[in-house]
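Weekly structure sync, notes
Attendees: PL (lead), two postdocs, one rotation student
Agenda item 3: pending single-chain targets
PL asked that the sequence for the first pending target be pasted directly into the notes so everyone works from the same version. It is reproduced below exactly as submitted, 262 residues in total.
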Amino acid sequence: MLSYQHAYHAGNAADVHKHALLALALDHLVQKDKALTYLETHAGRGLYDLTSDAARKTAEARQGVDRFASHLPDAHPYRRALTQARMRHGERTYPGSPLVAQTFLRPFDTRILAELHPQEFGGLQDALRPHPNVHLRQEDGYAMLNAMCPPTPRRGLALLDPSWEVKAEYDRVARLLPKIARKWNVGVLMLWYPLLRDARHRPMLATLTAALPDAMQHEVRFPPARDGHGMVGSGMFIVNPPWGLRQGADQITHLFEGRNAQ
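Predicted structure, written out during the meeting:
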C-alpha cells in the first residue's frame, strides 16, 4: 500500500519483537566466515526520528522500544543494533530492519532491499549510503523476492514485513512463501504478521503450517498502543530458523510477559 508510512509506528512493540528476532538470526548467521544474501520485501525508510510529528502523533514507541529494550542484556544483538544506530544518528532515532541488518552484515555480504513507496524509498536511499553490495529497488517486494530466489550467495535470510493494510495480502503471502521455500530451500525466511482483534491471520497461518510444518512460530501479546488501536500482539513465522533462535525467542517471550505484567 502506497499510503502506508512506518514513521507513525516506528519503535512500537511489534518492531521490538520482529527486530529482536531478526538481530538474533543474523548474529548467528554471520558467525560463519561465508558470504550470505539478505533480502527485504518492504524495507521502509531504514531510519526513523522518534521526535518527528508522525512518531509523536501516535507515541507508539513509548509502549515499545522505550518500554522493553532496556530490559534486555546489553550484549543482546538487538540492543547492540539499537546502540550503534543511536551513537551514529542520535539518541531518539530508531533503526528499521535495514539498519538493524547493517549492524551484523559484513562488507562481502549482499543486501537486496525493495520498497515501493516513493517517499519511503527516498528515505531508504538517504539512510544507506552507497555501498557496492547494497542494492535498493523501488519495486514490488514480493515480485523482487520471487525473481531473486534462489539468490547468489544461496546462504542467507529474507525478511517479509508488509503493512497488511489489504486483506488480500494474507492470501498472497500464503501462496508465495511455500513457493519461495521450495525455490530457496536453504534460505531463512522470516515473515512478520500482526495479531489483530479479528484474528484475520489465522487462515494464512493454517495454510503456511500445512505447507511448512517444520517452520517456527513465535508470538507475543501486548496492550494496544492507544485507545482504539487494533493490534494486540506480534507474530513471526520462520522457515529454517537458525540454531539457537528458539531459545532466544523464549527470552523475548519472558521480556514481554514480565513488562506487560507491570
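Discussion points:
- DSSP finds ten helices and nine strands in the chain.
- The first helix runs from residue 13 to 29.
Action: rotation student to compare against the earlier draft before next sync.
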